[in-house]
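Structure tokens please, single chain.
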Amino acid sequence: MGRNLANLHIKTNNLEKALKALRELSEGSPEVLGKKSSVQNRAVSDADKTGNEAQDNTFVFYVSKSNENWVSVLHDYFVWGTVKKIGKALSRLIEEPVMTIGFINDEIFELSIFENGDIGAERIFCGPWTREDYELQEELLHDERLREVLGIRKEDFDEFIKITSPEQAVDQLSEFLSMSLWSDSEWLPHEENLRNRFGKYEFHIENTV
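Here you go.
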């Protein structure tokens, strides 16, 4: 089995604004982060609550102001298949574009852009046989919007979207954006450079219990 990673990025230079949106996401949509909603929690009587359920109101994010254009976010619930749902929900809470990255088994790199609660553009980088085997299809092909959000020159972008190697595509996009996209919350205990780059932020949301 190859590498797997998932991460999320907000196109903003305002770290506090990004953190505010993450807090609002935790408070308003805990279910997309893998936790019970306030309604679900209220359905559990105090006598039935366990120690784990008592911790359900704590949300932990790892956040880095990667450069002047992007704030990067890691979370334990980010995986291929969930990170897009989280990016979509987060984009309802902040005016700036939200980019999600999903990378699975060294076979697929899924790059998605969300704005105002809707998908704005998407590209999947993989070999033709992989696309066929997984029955992959972009949710919305809108290359011009993708290029605008990423801030890539047209001639470079035209070459970029021809890439079929997921690893090469991640490396190339990392270079274009001047930040490494090789990051995942599961890697933090093992990679000192990631721990140095990402700060830990905990949100305690009272109304989820």
